[in-house]
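Support reply, case 0932

Customer input (verbatim):
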Amino acid sequence: MKYDNLIFEKADRVAILRLNRPLAFNAADIGLFEDLIKALEVCAVDEEVKVIVITGEGKAFCAGGDVAMFNSYPDPGEAIRQLTKRLHFTISGIRRGPKPVIAMINGTAAGAGLSLAAACDLRICAASVKFRQAYTSIGLVPDGAWTLFVPLLIGFGKASELAYLDPVFDANEALTMGLVNKVVEDGELERTTRQVALKLAQGATLSYAIVKENFNEAMLGSLERLLELERGGIIRAGKTKDAREGIAAFIEKRQPSFKGQ
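Our regenerated output:
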């Protein structure tokens, strides 16, 4: 299968999906998510694939949604609606698929990139990585089940801090708060992740599928409902004057002036 925004590699029963918009720091547009949805569907039914790794090509994991794309639409809310629809199919594909998914976080993870990483089963992170929630600083709200996965990983109080104050934080802070499972030196990231993936691929993969199904039933029964709730929320936020100002300020590289409207 041909992918325009993704590099698909398969070896030793491990599929590596590399987001491939490096000049945009792998900021997600509709095409990138559509490629990722297709690749996840292929992996789900390919009996030769036992483990999936998602990572970014170049210096970033995923810098979030492509804000420049929002600005290209007469109505940013419509751009957000289209992008969020694809993001949420992607999140469902990660969670509902029977195979373990590892986020190999090689660089910046912000906005939808943080949601993408949080939805995975394991997260292995390079030491130099920076994280940011990012949505609320441009007048939007988190989507991609951020409001489910991030509080599950780090707790309600810390998730509230990220949502309201939107700090930039590093890999060691992410490890301390429980957002990632392991932090390694940048040069060791791929080797370490491949080792973990190979160990899983050689394990009792049918058991892993049942474990994942049980986790989903125990903790994520509200996933689809929450995705719809988040989608409606970010579309509403995208139609506000504050969102228009936040998006414009992001493009113009200045501080936004919000009015609460």
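We compared this against your earlier run and they match. Two observations from our side: The chain has a mean pLDDT of 93. Residues 17 and 193 are 13 Å apart (CA to CA). Please reopen the case if you see a mismatch on your end.
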